[in-house]
Amino acid sequence: MGGLPLGRQISTPALFVIIASLGVLAPLAVLLLMRERAQAMLANWKDSLQPSALAMTGAGGALTLGARLASPARTLP
Description:
This protein is mainly alpha-helical. It has helices at residues 6-33, 35-70.
């Protein structure tokens, strides 16, 4: 797998899963732990993040495509 040591092969995807899971677990934790204030807090998060969601998605796609095209060792399927 790309010549990475076994420790890196295991830790890199595990770190990705942990970071990605925070996006789901944080709102759930707020809902469970702060029941009274959760609705207002989550609505505030939604209002803050929603305007930039399309830009973040586009930037992520552009970075992924750019990295894929710039990599000399890989070819597009």
